Amino acid sequence: MSDYMIKTQALTKRYGEQVSVSGLCLHVKQGRIYGLLGRNGAGKTTTMKLLLGLAKPTSGTVSLFGCPLQGNEKRLLPRIGSLIESPGFYPNLTGTENLAIFARLRGLKGVKPVKEALELVGLPYRDKKRFSQYSLGMKQRLAIALAVMHDPELLILDEPINGLDPIGIAEMRSFIQTLCQERGKTILLSSHILSEIALLADDIGILHHGVLLEEETMADLEAKNGRCLRLSLSDGKAAAALLRNRLGVETLTLEDGGALSVREPEFDTGEAVRLLVEAGISVRDVHLYEDSLEDYFRRITGGEGIA
Ligand SMILES: Nc1ncnc2c1ncn2[C@@H]1O[C@H](COP(=O)(O)OP(=O)(O)OP(=O)(O)O)[C@@H](O)[C@H]1O
Ligand SMILES: [Mg+2]
Q1: 11, 44, 193, 212: which to mutate for ligand 1, most atoms within 8 A of CB?
Q2: What's the gap in Å between 21 CA and the centre of ligand 1?
Q3: Element (DSSP H or E) covering residue 277
């Protein structure tokens, strides 16, 4: 079997003129939490729908558990649990009753699957409370319980922390971690909140305007962060050429608005400023700071940032 639970090859989805997902090569490894990070409209939900056979690719392929999805849907999809759009729970039934209906539909026998799924997400079994009386956090938990009830190997969760308060977020984080670490599940989740992905994911994919800009381990990503010198200038382009030619600076990024960022600067800042001023470029601001993940994303998304 392939090491990848999910692998896509040049996966593309167009809706008319709109390219929602473009040339995606995604690699989700077994037993890990993969965070798909992207702003609103980046293509996260579309990607997940393609992985779950809920949307048909315009081109490209999806492999699940080492097998092509196309033609094997009936065999592969039951091995996945997903939370992609709110499941249609009955408002007048309790959480237990709702899950029992889905359990019957899925051919699960006895009360055990329902009981265990509720236990896992910390909801009481046979509670009297109706779904309509649930808080948002409880609704979200019930949706996850439904996703894990048939004990799938792979979970695909679209924005599982959406709408939760800070305590709800921390609880959701902890049971997603439990699912991975103690139950050996592979989890693909999406979020537009960078700090959440940073706390939870082992691997990260950055989706921007339908394109996967980066895919790497969280550890590698964190190691990339370091000192950064940011210069606000009248002519960023000319300054970049000057610093490159005169001081041999290679780690330059030109931002929108003419600012220039230099990662791990190894030259004398005073000398750089003098060179720039002598060349007639005015230096409005010079700032040395620790590059954060946030800055990193801003850089790779061409200044737009991520959240
Ligand atoms: N059925 C559809 N028909 C037309 N365009 C669509 C359809 N579904 C999605 N899109 C477009 O594709 C792009 C990506 O949408 P998608 O829902 O995948 O983004 P997202 O990353 O999940 O965003 P959000 O964070 O807001 O949930 C958007 O521009 C969206 O308008
Ligand atoms: Mg979405």
Answers
A1: 44
A2: 9
A3: helix 269-278
Question: 22: Cβ below 6 Å to ligand 1?
Answer: no
State the sign of the Cα–Cα–Cα–Cα dihedral 175, 180, 185, 189.
positive
Name residues whose C-beta falls within 8 Å of residue 58's C-beta, 6 or more positions apart in sequence: 12, 13, 14
Query: Torsion-angle region of residue 101: left (phi > 0), alpha (psi -120 to 50) or beta?
Result: alpha
Per the DSSP assignment, residues forming a β-bridge with 216 are 204
Q: What is the pTM of this model?
A: 0.81
| CB-count exposure of residue 16 (10 Å: 0-12, 13-18, 19+) | exposed
How far does the centroid of ligand 2 lie from the alpha carbon of residue 43, in Å? 7
* Pairing of the two strands 260-263 and 27-29: unpaired
pLDDT tens, position by position, 249-289: 988 888 877 889 888 888 889 999 999 999 999 999 998 87
